[in-house]
Amino acid sequence: MVQAEEYGMAIKSWEELGISNDFLFGKVMQNPELCMELLQRILPDLEIDHIEYPQLQKSIKPDMDARSVRLDVYIKDDKEIVYDIEMQVSDTKELPKRSRYYQSMIDLQMIDKGQYYNELNKIYVIFICSFDVFGKGRHIYTFENICKEDSSVSMGDETVKIFLNAKGTMDDVNMELKAFLDFVAGKKTEDAYVEKLEEAVRKAKRNREWRHEYMTLLMRDQENQRIGKKIGEESMLLLVENLIKDGRFEDITKIKADNQYLQKLYKEYHII
After folding, report:
1. How far apart are CA 32 and CA 50, in angstroms?
2. Which of 119, 186, 233, 243 gives 248 a disulfide partner, CB atoms 3.0 to 4.6 angstroms apart?
3. Listed residue (190, 192, 218, 255) closest to 37, CA to CA
């Protein structure tokens, strides 16, 4: 889960939320039957008997300096396979690397000092997106570590990353998964599971405790945005003052259109 304000996303009222909202999605997926059926639609070849929730919407805070993460849906199945399912509606251009970071953070939680690496569980990191991350029209993109020189050789590290695209155009998934993705995209579809999800969404929105939690998170995010904006303005002012002092007037014009160059100058002047 990421802060909505962090990427300039429009804030919706509690009454407007649908399954594509990460907060509401996480609440609906607390129903093990709904969650397990979703997994079976995404991974039809897996035989899942039951799932458990080690921690609802698990938070991982590795240390003071590392970035913490809050996972939307974190579950294990009866074979000790771990799944992290994330709902994403804003294309932040960083999902591949975010999936890498989430996997590494989850791995850190799995084994303690003195344990062997082969005790790491198999893990699926799954992003359900309302957009096409890779722009190829697929509904599903599945990644595993395969040898570049010989695709028949798998690394065998038991990590899988899946990106689902609710706006896919290819005939590349089963009808059940397509129905769910259409629901995420806001399309009407005749499907028994989707009907259950619709009812679960309506029920979740009647939960006053969850409504209060959502509003509290929104207020926190808005305050973080306000503080971040103030810090950003102060940093920019300090940088411009330094550039003027050094006679680097062309750089002042350049940073308006080139964010990477802006970040480079921040580091050069030890501002952030």
Report:
1. 8
2. 243
3. 192
Pairing relation of β-strands 59-60 and 51-52?
A: unpaired
Give the separation between CA 83 and CA 125, rounded to whole angstroms.
6
Tens digits of residue pLDDT in 210-219: 998 888 877 7
pLDDT at 225 over 70: no
Most confident residue range from 111-125, 224-238, 239-253: 111-125
Cβ neighbours of residue 152 under 8 Å, at least 6 residues apart?
none
Rounded to two decimals, what is the model's pTM?
0.77
At residue 10, does pLDDT exceed 50?
Answer: no
